[in-house]
Amino acid sequence: MNVKICGLQNAEAALFAARNGADAIGFVFAESKRRVTVERAKQIISTLPKEVKKIGVFVNSSKEEIEKIVSETGIDIVQLHGHESPEFCQSIPYPMIKAFSIESARDLENIHTYPCEFILLDGPKGKYYGGNGIAFDWNILKTFDFKDKKVILAGGLDLENVSEALETNAYMLDVSSGVESNGQKDLNKIKRFLDFVKNKQSMEEII
To answer: What pTM does this model have?
Structure first.
């Protein structure tokens, strides 16, 4: 299964994640305690392998702002995490992920109105649109027909529930706070999370 480590703010952690098997690195350009400047994101991205996808997270940004940041940083994929309409998403000229905050099965009903291959399912909104470290009931995914959508599972993922997350058969797991200590990315937790998902090692083996 693919793994995205999100909310990176320094090159050391980003490069460490990439070298240990992360398929994607997320950079938050919206209001968040993990927000990164355009200049810092550009510098970090310049150090990463080409095969690792660089994903920019935006919340209710204008098309012009998104295009400017993508062109300046080298972002590969745009993640829209706000109230963006299907029409707005259609206007974005880059590969795109549309994020949805999920509290119940009813929140899944409108995902097919969005013209995107990838959807990100996050926990309920908190202080910020995403990155609140809150999981939703993953059991509701078992009976929903996602058709051709590829599901990225986010919200509250950590070393304690990653085994359960793998059972959802999502396309990708998106982890942020679950690989942090004291609000900062923890290299040991990043490695343990990636080892578990990528190498199918048991928690007993990697602890």
So the answer is: 0.91
